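Weekly puzzle thread! Below is a chain. First person to post its structure in token form gets bragging rights.
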Amino acid sequence: MIKSEVIPCLQDAMQTLQNIWSEIGLEEEQKEERTKSVLFHLRSLLQQMVSEEEELKSTLQANVETCTEELEKLSKELGLPMFKPEKQMSILMLESELRTKVDDLNQEKHERMKNLKSLREKETKLCERLSVPGHNLGEVNVPNKEQLKELEANVQYLQKELVKRLNTFKELKQSIETLWRELEAVPSTSIEQNLAKDDAEATFKLSSLNIETLKDLKCELENQQKRCVTESTELRETITSLWTKLEMDESERQAFLTKHNGSKPSVIAKLKNEVQRLQALKLQHIQKFIDGLRKELSDLWNKCYFGPAQREEFTPAFDDNFTEELLALHEHQVEVMKNYYEENKEIFKLVERRETLFKTMEEFESRKNDSNRLANRGGALLKEEKIRKGINKELPKIEQKLTVQIGKWEEEHERKFLINGCHYMNIINNQWAAFNAQKEQEKLERHKRQQELMEKEMVFGSKPATTPKKRPMGGTTPMKTPKRMKMQDCTTSTPSRLPLHSSVCPSPRVAKGNTNGRPPVSTKSNIRRVAKTIKKKTPNRRQSARLSVKRKVLGEKNNTSKLLNATGNTSIQVVNGFKSSSKTNESLVVCTSYHEFANGLDKEENNCRSSMLNRTHSMISFV
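Winning reply:
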């Protein structure tokens, strides 16, 4: 391609030059010289062009080597892998590719260094404020991405720590300044003076040591304030006690307390001066003070359940020689009793609760045999039963707690815990023994009364069984005759259905409307009354509940009847509807013991029930 273009071009140019030279009229020698000159210039031009291109090639190769070295260095500094061409390239393309890659790495290096500088500046400020060392990246010129992330994370942590410590500092500063005002104190140390500056939030070194120092300072000031509050409270209590014992005027007291309120040191100083003034007055009225202390001591003895012997152990309480030494002994004893009461307050509360429950239980037990409570309406029996169950549930628990706590106290103090001069566990055992003995005594008395009543009824006859009348509820409500009394006052043609009560022994009671001692004659009005009684509706649930409670109480009252049945001393009542026509039945009526009655009953027919006499339709009930 070069020959086809260069040779014709060279031939045309040489031909043109020959023509020009010919037209000019140059000789052949001149033409040859000029032709040689043209060739020389052509040769020189080509050599120069070759040299320039060779130089360009060398330059490109040098640039490739330089870029390769720089690229290798940057890759190592940035922690990146070395760039390698994916395919064979010419020197010019390789040089261009390497130069572009070097420029990119230089740009990234610049960004990293800029970021590093910014993070280092932030870290330096934070570390200086927090008094902490900076993050150590090691000996590196250009940080890699992981190192920059570590540094950035450290800066974020320091920022959060600064906010946290600053908030803590603000709270501590506010609290400490308030305590300084309360305690009338001024900053003394260097850190306290730095804390009191107006720009302390921006200039104070928020090191962990300084924060801990401020916390200790706050704690110390709080303890000092607590001591001041306690001291002022004790002084006011002392002053109030002295005022009361000296019978000071109320208006004077209020004026002093209003003027000297709070617990500042200046106020405490005023209170101390007042105590000294009152102490001087106290010495002038020492007898009045001792009498007041003795009254207070008596109240504490009562609270602690001290017995006479325990009270007599403090002999100064009975000394009439009023001196400062006697006053000091009384004050010391009052403090001892106060401490004793505070240490054993829980035990005394349990003792009080236990005594209240036991007394209530005794009251319920004493009212148990009172039949008038059965006529009380308004759910009193249900309430009483509920309270009784609560006592039975709570009393053992309290006694168990007392046993544990008193045992622990006695083990610690190596002496017995006394209530009213006696060991309280013995008191509990004696109370239960007396309670059980009282119940047994009442049981024997009921048994004795029942036996005497039975003997009296065997001789003189018994009264008809009646149902206790109910108490009317407000107004004059007509009293209804109980069902059993209605059945007793009427007769019917079927005695087996409507039996009437009579006694085994002849009763002096004369039947109503009958002068000759015979049973009353059945009438239509009586029959209608009985029928109306039988058709009476069943009581509702509320009445049934009340009746069940009453039956339960009556059952407890009549427990002695079962004891009487076990011994054979049983009172027998026979309900007879009309006159007996059998001699055997008449002998049964006048029998005086259960043995005679049983022998007479054996002579009756075998189909006779134990509770019914044959042909007479008599009903027997055992009481």
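Puzzle host: Confirmed. Bonus trivia for everyone else. Confidence is low (pLDDT under 50) at residues 474-527, 530-543, 556-591, 604-623.
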